[in-house]
Amino acid sequence: MTESLTIQLPQLRDPQLRVLMRPATAKDAAMTAVVLERAGIEARTCADLPEVLREMAEGAGALLVSEELLSGSGAAELAAAVAAQPPWSDLPVLILARQGADSRAISTAMEGMANVTVLERPLRVASLVSALRSALRARRRQYELRRMLDELNEADRRKTEFLATLAHELRNPMAPLSTALAILKRKPLTSEAALPYYELMGRQLDHMVRLVNDLMEVSRITRGKIELQLDELALEKVIRGAVELSRPLMDAGRHTLGLHIADASLAVKGDGVRLTQVFSNLLNNAAKYTPEGGRIDVFLEHDGHGHAVVRVKDSGTGIPAAMLDAIFDMFVQVSGTARAAQGGLGIGLTLVKSIVELHGGTVSARSEGADRGSEFTVSLPLLGHGARTSTESTTPEATMAVNHRILVVDDNRDAAESLETLLGLLGAKVAVAFNGPDALAKAELFDPSLAILDIGMPGMDGCELARRLRAHPRLHGIGLIALTGWGQPDDRLRIAQAGFDHHLLKPVDVDELTLALQKLERRAAG
């Protein structure tokens, strides 16, 4: 080997990128080691082929071996070891060959291994370093591929667990819903006797809606499709609002709740609904993962550096140290606690982290380990003065009477007919159609003042039907409400562009529907 070039590079210390080498002679080994060290390439000299094979199991970026090492059964043994590596691995093998015709050992090596480079001795230093650097670059890409495959496998595992959890969580409320319906269908009951079953069905429906809403919410937040409604907020009031939302879970678990408000004047600029959601999720988690009769404490403090700090501490099942970094990732649940949690899709903490970060804050978790409880800390930037809180109620004061001629269009017959009954109870006159063409024909005869349209109908969808109603010479001023399961920002834009006045999500909230009807009634009267 003729030395004509020395290259100085930063020293590498990654065992996964070291070069395992076995040149032909001890002199060659010593000289090659010096050359590679100067080039910043970490190398390990092996005494023989068995040592090369042992070291391969610990990790290698490339092999640099002499043709002599491959004589006899050496080439076949090395090829077998390389073939036994994981599918992502294509370990580069560089063979220092003697001058002249190819030997049987080299032919065997090239037949048995895909990534083989033959370098004829003597060779220049630049050629050796260049070949090894190229091999190590390729090896780094393989390690990156391994990382990506590991992440995909982990994501696939989480997705599988999530789908199983989702199926389980949706079946839970469906079971009592089905039972209650069966009872009401088979047994004549007075209104008073039937009321508990109606209340049961309402609670279970609310639970299903919450699951679906959480999925939609986390999708919007992670894609940056959420806008905060910012105002000056007193954190004490936000926390007390979250406590009220979480009170049913607290009471069900017979937990003791302690509120420790060091300074009631702490104020932030934020979205009250979203921040209430943050602390309610943390309190719900604490209640779910704390055995019955546990203790949960909430602390509100000033950190002395311009931030308010809210800590939610519980005496529950705790979090293993290995999970603390991943606990805020999508669909992650602490192993073995899903049953104790009594529901949830593993996205609540993802929502918490995303919303807090949108407010310029941070959230972290700590735990002493299994059955040692956990503590979540939220830090939010403070305003320099007290909060101005609104006294206006956000609850619509909807009366139960509307004066409309309403056309309901939905390809789901049960959905259309049940909405017809509800609107009739609200005082409206109602006609029902189950597709777009039928709706246009009904509109000609019924002359509706308002139409409530499903969007995802086959054939003529709700948006096309809305455009045709708007184009009708007699119906162009009709009020239009979209009642649909499509609620993403792109869907809302598409629906608004079709001419709708309001966009409501299924299942319909009666107060929201009544308020929308009244707004359209006032508009028509004005």
Chart the SSEs and their pairings.
Elements: E1 19-22, H1 26-38, E2 43-45, H2 49-56, E3 62-66, H3 74-83, E4 93-97, H4 104-112, E5 116-120, H5 125-186, H6 191-222, E6 231-234, H7 235-252, E7 256-261, E8 267-270, H8 272-288, E9 295-302, E10 307-314, H9 338-341, H10 348-358, E11 362-367, E12 374-381, E13 405-409, H11 413-425, E14 429-433, H12 436-446, E15 450-453, H13 462-471, E16 479-484, H14 489-497, E17 502-505, H15 510-525
Parallel strand pairs: 1-2, 1-3, 3-4, 4-5, 7-9, 13-14, 13-15, 15-16, 16-17
Antiparallel strand pairs: 6-8, 9-10, 10-12, 11-12
Helix pairs in contact: 3-4, 5-6, 6-10, 7-8, 8-10, 12-13
Notes on the protein architecture:
- This protein has 526 residues and is α/β, with parallel strands linked by helices.
- It folds into four domains: 15-147, Response regulator (Rossmann fold), CATH 3.40.50.2300; 166-222, Signal transduction histidine kinase, dimerisation/phosphotransfer (DHp) domain (Helix Hairpins, Orthogonal Bundle), CATH 1.10.287.130; 231-381, Histidine kinase-like ATPase, C-terminal domain (Heat Shock Protein 90); 405-525, Response regulator (Rossmann fold, 3-Layer(aba) Sandwich), CATH 3.40.50.
- Helices cover 46% and strands 17% of the residues.
- Strands 2-1-3-4-5 form a five-stranded parallel sheet, with helices on both faces.
- Helix 5 packs antiparallel against helix 6 (191-222) and helix 12 runs parallel beside helix 13 (462-471).
- 31% of the residues are buried.
- Residues 1-12, 336-343 and 385-400 have low confidence and may be disordered.
